[in-house]
Design brief:
heterodimer; A: 464 residues; Leucine-rich repeat, LRR (right-handed beta-alpha superhelix); seven-stranded mixed sheet; elongated; B: 486 residues; alpha/beta; two-stranded antiparallel ribbon; 15 helices
């Protein structure tokens, strides 16, 4: 607040938005009375027009005075304010003028033939509408009225979508969207609360009445950060009461930008050392979140699976569970002993059914289901597998060779299968492999001990 | 969608909100309706409403939980929290600066002195991690590098019932769903022939505290999520076989007919519990086939029996239950809850606790090893622990050979293994008296949040609306303990 303006004046000024509605009501009512009177041929109605105009004039005068008081706060864009101010004054004057003619207090011979009432009233209504419109722009911002209009919605500058998080310019992609959603409704070029505007980068650098909004590289001295971090009940807290406060994530981004990015408007994430927290917030904001999310497991991006495909697979006896909502990634389990020697030929067909979603399966369990080497040929096409449970099946080293191309497998369960130590070398070729379970196979402790000397090998887990 | 359908079926199920939304016809009243009830058209907070149940919120690390609950509260000071200071200061009164106003139970509140009592069990370090484990637990000591010991658990309750209820349901007052029920609700079942939440109980010779079915109740969740208690004895499920003269097809006809009658009643009343009841009958019918097979530990080879100990052959023992737990896990049960009673050592602690430890030590370690060799430890979260800790001062006569310890909520130890928990670490620290936590406290809400996290569930998003309030297992608190996650 400008200290030269007495508080009491500002206090009165804040009644302006309340009082302005009186002249609007009065004047429109006067106009309606005139129209209705003409249409209805009821001259009695005209009697009230005098009074409505007088009321409109007086209330417009009061509103103008209060408006002037409010304008002293300096929170508003001057050019819009000027327009509003002059239109307001014009409305008041014309209203009194119209009342003068109407009531016969003012007699101007030249105007007699012009049906002055209709003309003056129309003018008054136009003026009050224009004034009100500019007033509204001052309070709510110039895009308030048509923001949700079904027509001619002015598109904002659309940022080109990015595929890699690193390409994102910190300000454009992360900071600005936060400012736009939480700050610019009060801090824009036409409504500069506290003299501060976040409309564009120049305005942001300029700061407001309390000085600079931020100090590059110094969060502790940055006013905007101080204010958003305050206790929400604090008088200085931003955004003010009634508006949505910033979330923790949004605060982190702003802090990161000022401190780590030195409040640079061009710098990209790739140019900075970005803490994991920021990366994760940023990827969520930009919709780039690889669905790893919180668990830190890298996951492939895949398309969604048609429901009928899932339906078929489920009716074939598989248990199918989507591992993350709308990720298209699935765990597929064939219940143990579903396939045995009596129906072992069925398995080929069942595995074929999985092919339409082969990229979507990341966990596959076929334990104890008479899986043979030939089945692994089909499974070899499931390129995104991470966990594979093949234990208690008669598979051999030949079968393993079919799946060594799947580099994403991290865990491979082969206990109680017919594999031998010759598969160990194949495991080395599977770069992602971390754990192989070989309890109950022909592989011996000695062989595992020798294998343990190799570099970049998975853990081989034996029996206890 | 489903909800809407059931609403249209029965007028009794229309609640206030539905009533209001029915009122709003046409665009004008629609707008009015949305003014009156701001979230009328939102249906709650984003993902909560849109995400169907049974799908994790993010990539899970664990698929199931085996919770080895040590009922009665084993002493942390004779198990995992080694405090040499207690030896040095044996018999000294607990300094007030340490007790710091901690309330006491009625059992020791009358004592004029609180003499510090060191552990009767010797401690040594084990594994690459150098974890301290007492001599009461030689087998668990051997798997020190597989487990994560949390020494900084704390709770709010000071007596068994509220404490165990808190651990199991997230609230000290009974009535909320058990954590197993929440997991069943959130993740669904993996094997339709078995319940997704199974409870097994056993009892040691030590001083016992009661167990009640409310601990595995589904609370306000659908009762199909309730824990199914398998009896601790020769017959885990009674009347599993049909009576003589009743064929399987007769039984089928009987169930079909009962079900059709129940469905008529459901149409009349709209009570969802009737549908649950129908589902339960069907589950029981399927369990007649599945249970004998799953519970038949006779099929286990000699090497496995040896691993779990000879006691695993005696139905109803903790060891047998551990073996059963593994078999249930293999068969797709999501949450397997074991309780072993008898850990409430107010007196005669050295003897009683040695006995209790003997009951559980070998089988607990065996379960970890067995899961590991089957490749199941990586997606099975195993938890071992009680409902609170025990005091560092002596209850009753001061006798280092035969002492007791009272309840202590401020700090106690549990351990976890597998299912996305970092192996071979110790988390959190207590002061030199073992009385207060000095580093990384873990509240029960945090514990629940962490377990849910590893199952892929966001504890802030798994919500059930009941009687106008949104409920979570962690209520309004809880932080995932990220430091102990892989």
């Amino acid at each position: 607040m400008d200290s030269s303006v007495p508080d009491f004046v500002l206090f009165l000024g804040r009644f302006h938005p309340l009082v302005v509605h009186l002249p609007i009501g009065f004047l429109f009512f006067a106009f309606v009375l005139e129209l209705y009177g003409r249409w209805n041929k009821n001259p009695q109605l005209y009697m009230a027009i005098d009074l409505a105009l007088l009321g409109g004039g007086i209330s417009a005068l009061v509103a103008s005075v209060l408006g002037y008081m409010l304008s002293l706060s300096g929170d508003y864009d001057e050019s819009t304010l000027d327009t509003h101010f002059w239109f307001g004054l014009a409305t008041t004057l014309i209203t009194f003028f119209a009342w003068g003619i109407r009531s016969g207090k003012l007699r101007i011979a030249q105007l007699n033939g012009l049906k002055p009432n209709m003309v003056a009233l129309t003018l008054v209504v136009v003026l009050v509408s224009v004034t009100g419109h500019y007033g509204g722009n001052l309070t709510h911002g110039s895009d308030y009225l048509i923001k949700y209009a079904p027509f001619g919605r002015s598109e904002k500058v659309v940022l080109p979508p990015i595929a890699q998080l690193e390409e994102a310019a910190v300000y454009d992609y992360l900071v600005n969207p936060i400012l736009e959603s939480k700050c610019t409704s009060c801090h824009n070029s036409s409504k500069k609360k506290g003299g501060l505007s976040f409309q564009d980068t120049i305005a942001i650098k300029k700061g407001g009445k309390n000085g600079e909004a931020f100090i590059a590289g110094n969060v502790a001295k940055s006013e905007m950060i101080r204010r958003i971090m305050l206790d929400p009940h604090d008088e200085d807290f931003m955004p003010p009461e009634g508006k949505t406060p910033l979330t923790g994530e949004e605060k982190s981004i702003l802090t990161f930008w000022i401190d780590n990015a030195n409040a640079d408007f061009r710098v990209k994430l790739a140019d900075l050392e970005t803490p994991e927290e920021i990366t994760s917030i940023a990827s969520t904001m930009l919709g780039l979140e690889d669905v790893t999310g919180k668990s830190g497991i890298p996951l492939p991006k895949v398309g969604l699976v048609k429901e009928e495909v899932i339906g078929n697979i489920v009716s074939a006896g598989f248990k199918v569970r989507e591992l993350i909502f709308e990720s298209g990634l699935y765990e597929v389990v064939l219940p143990p002993n579903f396939i045995n020697s009596s129906n072992s030929d069925d398995l080929d067909g069942k595995l074929e059914m999985l092919l339409p979603m082969k990229d979507n399966i990341i966990w596959l369990s076929l334990k104890d289901n008479d899986v043979q080497d030939r089945h692994l040929k089909t499974i070899g096409q499931f390129v995104n597998l991470q966990k594979v449970e093949l234990e208690k099946n008669p598979i051999t080293d030949k079968g393993i060779a079919e799946i060594i191309g799947i580099q994403s497998i991290t865990g491979l369960n082969l206990y109680q299968t017919k594999i031998t130590a010759s598969s160990l070398d194949n495991f080395l070729k599977m770069k992602g492999l971390k754990r192989v379970y070989v309890w109950g196979t022909a592989i011996t402790e000695d062989e595992v001990a020798r294998f343990a000397e190799k570099q970049n090998r998975p853990d081989i887990i034996m029996g206890m | 969608m489903e909800e809407d359908k059931s609403k249209s079926e029965n007028p009794l199920k229309v609640n206030r909100r539905h009533f209001f939304s029915q009122l709003s016809v046409g665009i004008g009243s629609l707008a009015l309706g949305s003014l009156l009830i701001p979230d009328l058209f939102k249906g709650g907070k984003g993902p909560v409403a849109s995400q169907p149940l049974g799908i994790p919120h993010f990539a899970p690390k664990a698929k199931r939980v085996i919770y080895l609950f040590q009922s009665g509260a084993p002493s942390q000071l004779e198990s995992f929290d080694y405090k040499p200071t207690l030896v040095k200061r044996m018999g000294e009164d607990l300094p007030e600066s340490i007790r710091n106003g901690q309330r006491l139970t009625g059992m020791t509140a009358g004592q004029d002195k609180f003499p510090l009592m060191p552990s009767a069990a010797k401690f040594s370090q084990h594994g690459k991690s150098g974890a301290w484990v007492s001599e009461f637990f030689p087998h668990i000591a051997k798997i020190a590098d597989e487990i994560c010991i949390v020494k900084s658990m704390h709770t709010e309750a000071i007596n068994h019932d509220p404490a165990i209820t808190f651990f199991q349901t997230g609230s000290q007052q009974s009535g909320r769903p058990s954590m197993g029920s929440w997991m069943s609700y959130g993740l669904g079942s993996e094997n339709q022939n078995l319940p997704s939440f199974v409870v097994l109980t056993s009892r040691g010779k030590g001083n016992s505290q009661g167990l009640y079915s409310k601990l595995w109740s589904s609370g306000f969740l659908d009762s199909k999520h309730q824990g199914v208690l398998l009896r601790s004895g020769k017959d885990p499920v009674l009347y599993l076989n049909d009576p003589e003269g009743l064929s399987r097809s007769d039984k089928r006809h009987l169930l079909d007919h009962v079900s059709s009658l129940n469905k008529i009643h459901h149409v009349e009343t709209g009570d969802d519990e009737i549908e649950s009841r129908i589902a339960q009958y069907e589950m029981a019918y399927r369990m007649q086939m599945s249970v004998p097979d799953v519970m038949d530990i006779k099929k286990e080879p000699e090497s496995i029996i040896k691993l779990y100990g000879e006691e695993s052959q005696v139905p109803g023992t903790y060891a047998a239950n551990c073996l059963q737990a593994r078999r249930l896990a293999e068969n797709g049960v999501r949450f397997i809850q074991l309780y072993h009673q008898g850990w409430d050592q107010h007196g005669n602690l050295p003897n009683e606790m040695a006995g209790q430890a003997k009951d559980v030590d070998q089988a607990s370690a065996a379960l970890i090893l067995d899961l590991k060799q089957r490749g199941m430890l990586e997606d099975t979260l195993v938890i071992w622990g009680g409902e609170f800790g025990r005091t560092n001062y002596c209850q009753g006569n001061f006798d280092p050979k035969n002492y007791g310890r009272d309840h202590h909520p401020r700090a106690f130890s549990i351990w976890m293994a597998g299912g996305g928990i970092k192996p071979g670490i110790t988390y959190g620290e207590t002061d030199e008296f073992g009385y207060n936590i000095v580093k990384n406290p873990v509240h029960i809400n945090d514990f629940h949040a962490t377990i849910m996290n590893n199952l892929g569930l966001d504890h802030e998003q798994l919500i059930y609306k009941y009687q106008g309030r949104r409920f979570r297992l962690t209520d309004v608190a809880g932080n995932v303990v990220n430091d102990i996650l892989t």
